[in-house]
Amino acid sequence: MAYSWVVPIIEEMDAQLVFSHFGTSYCSGLGGVEGHFAMKRLLVLILLIGSFGVVQPAKASTDCPLKGHPVGDGRWMLRQSPRLDARDVRIRFENGATARMKAIRLRHRDFTIRLHWRDKSKWSSPFEFGVLGDKLGAAIILNAGYYDEKGRPLGYFRSGGKVFNSRVLYRGHKTFLHYGALFTVGRKTGVPNIVSREKFKDSDVKEAFQAGPLLVADGKPVRGLTRYREYLRATRRTVVGLDAEGRLVVLVSEAETRGISWCELQEFLVLPESKGGLGIRDAMNLDGGSSSQLWVRGEVGIPGRPAPTYIIIAPRA
């Protein structure tokens, strides 16, 4: 339908009310909750009117409009201290634009992986990654999932065995796929994993947070994302994935770059390493845009705006 763009907007508006019971709402400028539902009714009316119009139905696209090709040989650089692989990713598109990202790959047996929620009253204040890294003994720090205007995690969030938000948002729904996955760390094993919200069980995890969408599952691009604007919109991204050997792969857009869309990410993530890709088995999208940021001790610093939650990766003692 030509007005299929209305549906994801309605979904996003509903998602913004997730924490309205705390006394605040993203929709305060529209008169709070009442304004939210008034706008939602208006969009539904537009959708209904459009369905009777003469506008031709929009064709759903399953391919990216611009084809991208990895630049270079795709070689990883091995670092000994801490022991990890690093790679500069360059993807050149048909229009001449280039997406630039930094990729980090590691084996979980060499690291401990946990989440960090910054002080609630100071989360929006600038800070030095090096200071936080020294405090937490981190080798790698990157931004995690979505949050509200008070720095509270949107969706399930567990850190250090403590649950800060027990709600798995939209479980049982076929929509709201931008909350469709969880990143977890096993309680006893310390093994990282990526699961859909439908398959998530909190009984065996020490660390977990909800974000999305799930981009890749079992080595194949996840379907059903074409309805979202981010499917075709290029912007900065943060992605976590697991390759066929179970290694954790982190991919973060550089600060000055074209950015990359979900569909472009899907094509690159599943591309075999022999063809310049990452050969990813499972992957999920995290918070992006100006929130995308990465710090690797002694090497990488990709800045972003302060965020309340981070993934902390520290060498095992």
What report would you give on this structure?
- By secondary structure, the chain is α+β, with helices and mostly antiparallel strands.
- The chain folds into 2 domains: 46 residues; 248 residues, no CATH class.
- It is 15% helix and 32% strand.
- Helix 1 packs antiparallel against helix 2.
- The longest helix has 20 residues.
- The N terminus is likely disordered.
| Domains (count) | 2
Calculate the mean pLDDT score and round it.
84
Radius of gyration: 20 Å
The secondary-structure class comes to alpha+beta
Instruction: Catalogue the unreliable spans.
Output: 1-9, 16-34, 46-62
Key phrases:
2 domains, alpha+beta
Give a brief outline of the structure.
The chain has 317 residues and is of the alpha+beta class.
Note the topology.
Layout: H1 6-15, H2 32-51, E1 68-70, E2 77-80, E3 83-93, E4 98-106, E5 111-117, H3 129-136, E6 140-143, E7 157-159, E8 162-165, E9 181-186, E10 192-196, E11 205-211, E12 214-217, E13 220-221, E14 238-243, E15 248-253, H4 262-270, E16 280-285, E17 294-296, E18 300-302, E19 309-315
Helix pairs in contact: 1-2
